[in-house]
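Below is how a single chain appears once it has passed through the pipeline. First comes the sequence as given, then the structure the pipeline wrote out for it. We keep one example in the README because the format questions we get most often are answered faster by looking than by reading.
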Amino acid sequence: QVQLMESGGGLVQPGGSLRLTCAASGAILLLRDMGWYRQAPGKQRELVAGITRAGEVNYADSVKGRFTISRDNAKNTVDLQMNSLKPEDTAVYYCNAKLVSFNTPSQLRNLWGPGTQVTVSS
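Resulting structure:
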């Protein structure tokens, strides 16, 4: 069974930093685009940052210059370094991956992690 698992969330003061990590595990044949999304209470889930397998990145305007996404293809992980955090960054952060598994090699799957809570508050 292929799955994603996030770690690294928590409570941090405004201006602080957190690093989120997402690890993909299971019978993975190919891990393509990966990304981080977030969903605040009462709001829709939104893209925070994305990264292709080749390392091309894109960011939401609200996090540009503060967040950095990176990945390790050998370890099947994607990280999100979050600096200068603001209260409006408070949300549940979800890892997303487009991948192909050994079990269904002709199908591109869109997988989500269970989410990790990030709370920015003094």
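DSSP finds no helices and eleven strands in the chain.

See the next section for the split statistics.
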